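> call design_seq(struct)
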């Protein structure tokens, strides 16, 4: 109904691949996120409103995203060190020079451009970063290395992550979330709503990086024209997650279907239900 009665943009995050047929029937774009898929999309995509209302320059926020992406992908458990952080920031600034001079889609860089600049830096920290990222650029996990070959301008986009392997799980979800923000920020400037359906949302609550993003957009998304919905059968996971609790607190409404008796305590705790409601 939302698709036919509005002209809004819509994103579906579909970890089980259940929405592919419906999206195809509606003429939407299904992006199969897996190493065996032929679909590709560029995590360096950006627009002039990417920084939101508070930051007119989109590059610093993109740099922050790339730093966080590399930090989580390369598993910096104690956080990325200041030297590596500065190197990443310098590379991001360098690869966006052409875009900054003339902001257009043709001038948007790729992850491979970032890697090329990184390898030219004669520094041990830069060599270490390049070595860790090689598999994601030149190796078998290079699905985010180049330009997008899908219609990212389709008003209905579905990310099918069913076959996204463990090695790419966190990186893939972080890039998908960044794509969502890229579209949300662009649409806000156009006074246009963005709908987001995140199925099996408990999977993103398992990791701090993706959970924090969800908590943030649930808290602030409305002022950017976002209409977000999270769906899960794992209520217990949501109740254990601080981000999940924040999302419930910042939801306009909750639809609660039949629950198993064993989930009673989790549901009661999460929803602050009275004994009569239980």
């Amino acid at each position: 109904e939302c698709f036919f009665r509005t002209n809004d943009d819509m994103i579906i995050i579909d970890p089980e691949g259940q929405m592919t047929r419906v999206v195809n029937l509606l003429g939407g774009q299904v992006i199969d996120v897996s190493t065996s898929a032929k679909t590709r999309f560029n995590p360096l995509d950006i627009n002039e409103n990417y920084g939101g209302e508070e930051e007119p320059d989109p590059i610093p926020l993109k740099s922050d995203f790339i730093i966080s992406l590399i930090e989580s992908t390369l598993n910096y458990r104690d956080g990325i060190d200041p030297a590596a952080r500065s190197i990443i920031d310098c590379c991001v600034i360098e690869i966006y020079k052409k875009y900054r001079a003339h902001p257009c889609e043709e001038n948007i860089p790729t992850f491979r451009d970032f890697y090329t600049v990184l390898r030219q830096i004669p520094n041990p920290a830069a060599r270490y970063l390049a070595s860790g990222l090689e598999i994601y650029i030149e190796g078998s996990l290079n699905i985010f290395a180049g330009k997008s070959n899908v219609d990212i301008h389709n008003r209905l986009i579905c990310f099918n992550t069913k076959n996204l392997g463990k090695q790419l799980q966190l990186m893939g979800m972080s890039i998908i979330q960044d794509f969502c923000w890229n579209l949300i920020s662009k649409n806000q400037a156009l006074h246009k709503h963005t709908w987001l359906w995140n199925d099996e949302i408990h999977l993103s609550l398992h990791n701090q990086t993706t959970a924090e993003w969800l908590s943030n957009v649930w808290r602030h998304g409305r002022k950017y024209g976002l209409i977000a919905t999270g769906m899960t059968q794992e209520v217990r996971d949501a109740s254990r997650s601080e981000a999940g609790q924040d999302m419930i607190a910042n939801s306009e409404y909750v639809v609660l279907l039949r629950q198993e008796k064993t989930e009673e305590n989790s549901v009661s705790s999460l929803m602050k239900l009275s004994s009569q409601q239980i």
